[in-house]
Amino acid sequence: MGDSPRYRMRKILDRLFQIVSALAAIVVISPLLLIFVFLLSSGGSSLTWDFLTQLPKPVGETGGGMANAVVGSCILVAVATAIGAPIGVLGGVCLCEYGGPRLRAAIRFTADVLNAVPSIIWGIVVYSWVVLRMKTFSGLAGGLALSFIMIPLILRTTEDVVRLVPPAYREAGLALGIRRSQVILHIVLATARRGVVTGVLLAAARVAGETAPLLFTAFGNRVWASRLDEPMAALPLQIFAYAISPYPDWHRQAWAGALVLLALVFLMNAVVRILSKGKTR
Fold first, then answer.
1. Do 149 and 207 contact (CB within 8 A), yes or no?
2. Digit-coded pLDDT (tens) for 61-91
């Protein structure tokens, strides 16, 4: 039976499917590896301690770094998270715990549409709402534009994670006489907190490399930004400015900045992978 032609054919097909699957996985992974190797070869020589700790040099001079852009990117992502995470999480909870089928369907549809909106549109919207009214570019406007991108991502992730919490948890809390809001806060969200944090970090990693909305909002600068109501540097903006410049040294620094940005996004995704090993307690 084990040596029958049908059995041998099944083994051959099974082995062939394994090979094709492995090749498909390599095809998926290879672009990331190629990008990383290319960035390392192009910008690795410029990735020095001075690059991470010094401000950019004046136009035309060699040397300097992107310390202000690294710090500015961290500030912008932090502002965007502070604005977008509470709204997204509460929206996801509302989508899962409250409202009727029609309301939930409308919110899901709206969130999906917002996820598909090009990021440059959010930059133009915040430019019209905030920058023109404040009469200045600012880190606050940049963080707000990024938060608009984060909100629908966090909302849908939170909904999926909260929906995984067993209904028995909610029923047990309500049976003890606990208010529904307290059940959601102290039981449902506490149980799903790893998944919620994972969704927030995924959204933060998603917006960390955005350039288009920051062109209309944060705008960038070449010094330290001490306040949120003034232009603020960011790694994507600095990379863009250096990449289109005519100076070879700036081109090398642009590659080094891209390598740092890729490393930051990779680190955030690694943290997400660690947290996502157990989405619930």
1. yes
2. 888 889 999 999 999 999 999 999 999 999 9
Averaged pLDDT score across all residues of the chain: 89
Q: Two tokens at 42? A: 């192009």
Count of all residues that appear for the chain in the document = 281
Q: How many CA atoms are closer than 13 Å to the CA of 54, on its beta-carbon side? A: 14
Quickly tell me which residue has 């390598």 as its tokens: 259
> Looking at this protein, which amino acid is placed at residue 97?
E
Average pLDDT estimate for 125-132: 95
Q: What's residue 90's pLDDT?
A: 92
Q: Note every long-range contact of 183-189, with CB atoms under 8 Å and residues 24 or more positions apart, other chains counting.
A: 184/93, 184/97, 188/93, 188/97, 188/162, 189/89, 189/93, 189/162
Residues 188-225: pLDDT tens digits? 998 998 889 989 998 999 999 999 999 999 999 988 98
Residue among 27, 8, 4, 26 nearest 16 (CA): 8
280 pLDDT band (50/70/90 cuts)? very low
Q: 92 and 165 in contact (C-beta within 8 Å)?
A: no
Q: Is 175 exposed, middle or buried (0-12, 13-18, 19+ CB in 10 A)?
A: exposed
Alpha carbons 83 and 203: distance in angstroms, whole number: 12
- Longest CA–CA span in the chain (Å) reads 82
Place of tokens 């999906």: 112
Token pair for 9: 């054919």
pLDDT score at 281:
45
